[in-house]
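Subject: Protein record for review, amino acid sequence with backbone structure tokens
Concerning: The relation between a protein's sequence and the shape of its backbone.
How to read it: Take the token row as a discrete description of the fold.
Enclosed: The protein record, placed directly beneath this head.
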Amino acid sequence: MIEINHVTKSFSTSKKAVDNLNLTIPAGKIFGFLGPNGAGKSTTIKMMTGILPIDEGSITINGFDITKHPIEAKKIFGYVPDSPDLFLRLKGIEYLNFIGDVYDVPSDVRQEKIAYLTKTFGIYDALNDTIQTYSHGMRQKIIVSGVLLHEPKVWILDEPLTGLDPKSSYSLKEMMREHAQKGYTVFFSTHVLEVVEQLCDEVAIINEGTLLFHGTLEEMRTKFTSDGSLEQMFLELTNHE
């Protein structure tokens, strides 16, 4: 479970990037985090993962405060950032072994997981190449493989499907479903509303740092009198002044 309590973040005195955000993301659910560009999604995720400090409020991951107990919290979650351009000078296998070392993944388990994940995502044959030679999609796949290597209970994914080919996208979505079915938490941001309709148990919509909606898709449809599409509801919410 992820609990975001009265969280505020400002980068200037004139505007708050995230304004008094309250959200509870339950275990056993796939939770979609939606909003236009610049809405505060990535800022929220960077506070959730300890990359950005929180100005006001608190965030806990399975009971661990990310500010007060950062090491304990970070052992629990896996994070896919919005850009996969990381550790470019390492070979793919070096990066995955580095992640395995950080999270103390035993050698035999590590080898099996690396083979499974990289074959699933179609990058097994590129593991001895440096990441800087990878395409954007391949870089996304190696980062996702690293995140899943240590089997974290909480997945925090910032636009995880960007750059993935249809087969890999399908595989990751199936993994997300399986993870939630085990009683664990999947939190992901996306611009692809079709994916939200396919996957999400609950959604939250944020715009200009303010939470506009939190609930199930059925609750969102109930809120609107028309039988509009998710796209129509999203546009109506985010265009509202």
Observations:
- The CA atoms of residues 66 and 156 lie 13 Å apart.
- The longest strand covers residues 16-25.
- The chain has one domain: 2-239.
